[in-house]
Design brief:
The chain has helices at 17-33, 52-58, 72-81, 133-147, 186-190, 218-222, 236-239, 252-256, 261-273, 290-297, 303-312; strands spanning 5-10, 38-41, 63-68, 87-90, 121-126, 161-162, 175-176, 196-198, 204-206, 228-229, 281-282, 286-287. The chain has 313 residues and is α/β, with parallel strands linked by helices.
């Protein structure tokens, strides 16, 4: 019988021996006590999109349980960004409220409302929310039994499979939560580094993640729907925890002056409609969205000064 789901354990960045012991013990117990394939990967945030680990995950067709040290919302949309899509679920009670989705803001539907998803569930869990390996094993067994419609314990099987790939470095980039994003383009209008772009369907995406300035969460603070996450940010609300960013928000008009948000968005779209799609290609960094490149050329305050003002706020 084909396993009802695959378990993925994404190691943390920290080489702390207690974390490594916990990851290894959890992988071994899951493989020993269930019939599920268990894949142990390097930190998924630090792996290239075209590497063997992401390729292996994209080949999985059944349900997934993904356990990591990241908040479940951040992990789910990181997976989605790399082509590992499915219905969103969580492992454990602490993040269960996220399954209900964010409250609808205004009359604009989020991008996810119009996106078809595969008929499978992806369960994400944050490892430091449960201190005992046995608790995670019990939770995963329960999910597997429901997925397989079994009324009895799953048989024992196998060893965990270690997926090896050297991380390029500790990467820093945003992840878009499309269950919140309304495609307002605020982030692409704001970012000066060419991180964001738009796809063939005119939907915002993180096009050049490695152009993001390390440590900068400014676009997350600008986003009106709290849809931009930085998985490794020390502030839980920005890293993907339940709740809103609240006082972390930045009023761009107050910070930079100029026209209100709606006027600036309309002006940006008007500029875009008169530009060829392939304009402004960078020989070293790949495509740069014309709106971003124009902002970078325009006279204005020094970038470092902007970040200092953001931090003061």
């Amino acid at each position: 019988m084909q396993p009802p789901l695959t378990v993925v354990i994404s190691r943390g960045r920290s080489p702390h021996p207690e974390k490594r012991r916990f990851e290894d013990e959890l992988a071994a117990e899951l493989a020993r006590q269930t019939s599920l394939p268990v894949l142990v990967t390097p930190p998924l945030t630090d792996l290239g999109a075209n590497g063997p680990v992401w390729a292996r995950l994209r080949r999985t067709e059944r349900d997934l349980v993904v356990l990591s040290w990241l908040f479940p919302r951040a992990m789910h949309w990181l997976l989605d960004r790399h082509g590992v899509a499915g219905q969103r679920a969580t492992v454990g009670d602490q993040e269960a409220a996220e399954d209900q989705g964010p409250p609808q803001i205004g009359a604009v539907e989020p991008v996810a409302a119009g996106r078809p998803l595969p008929d499978r569930r992806i369960h994400c869990g944050k490892l430091d929310t449960e201190p005992r390996v046995s608790d995670w094993v019990d939770r995963v067994r329960g999910i597997a039994e429901i997925a397989a419609s079994l009324g009895e314990p799953l048989p024992a099987a196998g060893q965990p499979q270690q997926l090896e790939e050297p991380p390029r470095r500790r990467r820093w980039f945003p992840v878009i939560d499309y269950s919140r994003c309304t495609n307002c383009m605020e982030c692409i209008d704001f970012c000066l580094f060419g991180v964001y772009g738009i796809d063939a369907g005119e939907i915002i995406l993180v096009e050049q993640p490695d152009l993001c300035r390390p440590g900068c969460p400014a676009c997350s603070r600008v986003c009106p729907e709290n849809a931009i996450l930085f998985p490794h940010h020390p502030t839980p609300a920005i890293a993907g925890a339940c709740g809103e960013t609240g006082g972390l928000k930045v009023d761009l008009s107050a910070l930079f002056g100029g026209s209100p948000t709606a006027d600036r968005q309309a002006a940006a779209r008007e500029r875009e409609s008169h530009r060829p799609a392939a304009e402004e290609r960078s020989a070293t960094n790949g495509p740069v969205d014309p709106r971003v490149s124009e902002a970078a050329r325009s006279p204005g305050p020094d970038t470092d000064d902007w970040f200092r003002q953001l931090e003061e706020i």
